[in-house]
Design goal:
CATH superfamily: Phosphoenolpyruvate-binding domains
CATH architecture: Alpha-Beta Barrel
CATH topology: TIM Barrel
Number of strands: 8
Strand order of the largest sheet: 1-8-7-6-5-4-3-2
Oligomer: single chain
CATH class: Alpha Beta
Shape: globular
Structural class: alpha/beta
Number of helices: 11
Strand content: 5-15%
Length: 284
């Protein structure tokens, strides 16, 4: 018998459900959240799982994205979200909030203890030479994450930033990406996430060549979820784009009221009572 969303009362149940939701051709769709209220709104809209966005989390807590947020603050947010929703939660932990594999392991242990059953971990280099961590270096970090998560069945989504960072030779970028995917899966990753790729031919090449469930970062101009499903994609996420859109609303409202003195931008707001009711039984 399959596990329903209301039956995911234990971490093991949520982990098993989250893993099962990654099906090629029937993708898990994740409108990323960055706070408890947003997570409750996304859950109420029918999402089968909640994914955090590291950028949105960092911005809401006063930091820039790119491993600049204090690890404790990041983990605390994950714990609050996981306590507030009944569906599985996967946490975007950037590059692990640490330089060395041991630090990544510490982050993963804290995130698992906070209630997450999945993580995203990226290979972008936010300081030092080069745009990306060396393949072997990132593989060691993923292996450390896998070991630290035991015995929890953590779903490790290995983010490969070759396209997002325009790293390396464009002529070999696909091959380089697939080489990284192979190394990361061998080190313990469960899925592959390549932001910056929405071209159908490239998406299909990643699906065929990666040997793992493929996550696509979608947004305006990207293929629809149905089109991505037809390419065999197993996961579609929106990343920081919802947070960006929300802050755009803040800017539009502020500009409108400060210039024209009107309030039209607020017309489509969620009603106070509806939003308040969503948080009444929050465990956060």
């Amino acid at each position: 018998m399959s596990i329903s969303h209301t039956q995911t009362s234990t971490s093991a149940d949520r982990a098993r459900l989250f893993r099962d939701l990654h099906t090629s051709g029937r993708p898990l769709v994740l409108p990323n959240a960055w706070d408890v209220a947003g997570a409750r709104v996304v859950e109420a809209a029918g999402a089968a799982a909640i994914a955090t966005t590291s950028a949105g989390v960092a911005w809401s807590l006063g930091a820039a994205d790119g491993d600049r947020l204090d690890r404790g603050l990041a983990v605390d947010l994950v714990a609050r979200v996981a306590a507030a929703v009944s569906v599985p939660v996967t946490a975007d932990i950037e590059s692990g909030y640490a330089d060395a594999p041991g630090g990544v392991a510490a982050t993963v242990r804290d995130v698992v203890a906070a209630g997450a059953v999945g993580i995203n971990i990226e290979d972008a280099r936010h300081s030092g030479p080069g745009k990306l961590l060396a393949v072997g270096e990132q593989a060691e970090r993923i292996a450390a994450a896998r070991e630290a998560a035991a015995p929890a069945d953590l779903f490790i989504n290995a983010r490969i930033d070759t396209y997002l960072m325009s790293a390396g030779d464009p002529g070999t970028r696909l091959a380089d990406t697939l080489d990284r995917a192979e190394a990361y899966v061998a080190a313990g990753a469960d899925g592959i996430f390549v932001p910056g790729v929405t071209d159908p031919e490239l998406v299909l090449a990643l699906v065929k060549g990666s040997g793992a469930p493929v996550n696509v970062l979608a947004g305006p101009g990207a293929p629809t979820v149905a089109e991505l499903a037809a390419s065999g994609v197993a996961r579609v996420s929106l990343g920081s784009s919802i947070a960006e859109a929300a802050y755009a609303v803040v800017r539009r409202v502020a500009r409108e009221v400060l210039t024209t003195g009107t309030y039209g931008t607020l017309a489509e707001a969620i009603a106070y009572g509806e939003l308040n009711d969503l948080l009444r039984d929050s465990g956060a």
